[in-house]
Known about the structure:
GO molecular function: acyltransferase activity
Keywords: Acyltransferase, Cell membrane, Membrane, Transferase, Transmembrane, Transmembrane helix
Helix content: over 70%
Order of helices and strands: HHHHHHHHHHHHHHHHHHHH
Structural class: mainly alpha
Mean pLDDT: 88
Number of domains: 2
Main location: membrane
Subcellular location: Cell membrane
Protein name: MBOAT family protein
Radius of gyration: 23 Å
Distance between the termini: 17 Å
Number of strands: 0
Amino acid sequence: MLLNSLNFIFAFLPVVLILFYVVPGKWKNVVLALSSIFFYAWGEPVYVVLMLFSAVLHYMMGIDIGRKRKRNQSAVPSLVFVVVIDVFILGFFKYYGFLSGAVNEWLGTGFSTSALSLPIGLSFYSFKNLSYIIDVYKKKCEPERDPIAFLAYASLFACMSAGPIVRYADIREDLYTHNVYMSRLGEGARRFILGLAKKVLLADQLSMMISQIQDAGTPMSMMTAWIYLFAYTMQIFFDFSGYSDMAIGVGKMLGFDFQENFDYPYIAKSVTEFWRRWHMSLSSWFRDYVYIPLGGNRVSVPGHLRNILIVWCLTGIWHGGTFNFPLWGLYYGVILIFEKYVWKNLLSRLPGWAANLYTMLLVMFGWLIFMNSSLDAVGKILGALLGFGASSFIDLTAGYYLKTGFLLFAVCILSARPVLKKFSERFVESSAITTVVVYLILFLLSIGGLVFNSYQPFLYMQF
């Protein structure tokens, strides 16, 4: 089931909210756990077993590690065991096709190279559960002994499919207090509608444009190539941030405060700042559980360079099992090293608009690597962007999309910056009536988009 499906919006969510608000406090986690299992089984009836296995494994090993820590016994074997299991499951499902193909090529074997169907949300709930185990090991939180409460955390449907990566320590109190009231319900509903509008009214429209350009199957003009890359740059932001908004909104309706996942990343004035603003739950996860344990920046310069490259290679590998993803990760690792050690002072002296332009160009080229598993395709589009191999500077296709997509592009640019939020806070949300009317219009437009264009899966569900 998808958060942007009519089944979820008009059937699943209302029923869950009613049950959640009606039942006594001690039964609320039961409602959350059962509804989350149903939510996951709706789309993954087989892989729900894998999700439950992960929850049971981390629950039991959390208690085991907590017991050993209290007895001053070494919990390292237990921690290593869980990490190995998690890495094996992730590697098996995400990289089987890639690794079996490599083995066949090197050893002449005949393993099937067909990629396995990736369980929805596998990377997200694996990292979420792993953060719990590591925090218990480091004594940052006590092991959860209530199996229902832990299952509610491990399977929480709001952030199951595409994050944000919610840490147990951040919501443990919420699992027991369940502070829900009308103002929080309203705040959650507004956040959900905003995310739905980002997805349906912006990301999905950009997706159709991208598909049409791809289906044309002819050499792109230079302008068409830039429109194509700009559209993807905006699509992935509004698609992913839209999901995060919806997940955070549903969380608020259920009494949870999830970590923010985006903070206007496209206004960043360096790539380093961009990654402080983009997918913040993943960036902070790698910082806290990989980068800092490796020594962070408290090591020699060669050690620091090593740590950066390891983290960003792993970040790329986390996203997928094709060659472009680790390449994408290393691309950012190298840029961050240069920003840290080579042109840091130069960046600080650039005007704000120039620093932002520098950042956006590097980010857009990064998305070019991210979106294409074929390096040949990357080379052809990159050539067209720079004028090499392009059919012309501008053609009828580019003119058509500039004309028909002008308003969409303008709205995307404004929405990707704080200007609309500031306008909304000053003029729209200053009046309760105006707030209700504006969000009702956004909701109806979004539902209309779902009805007439059908809903599209979120991009990050494939990672």
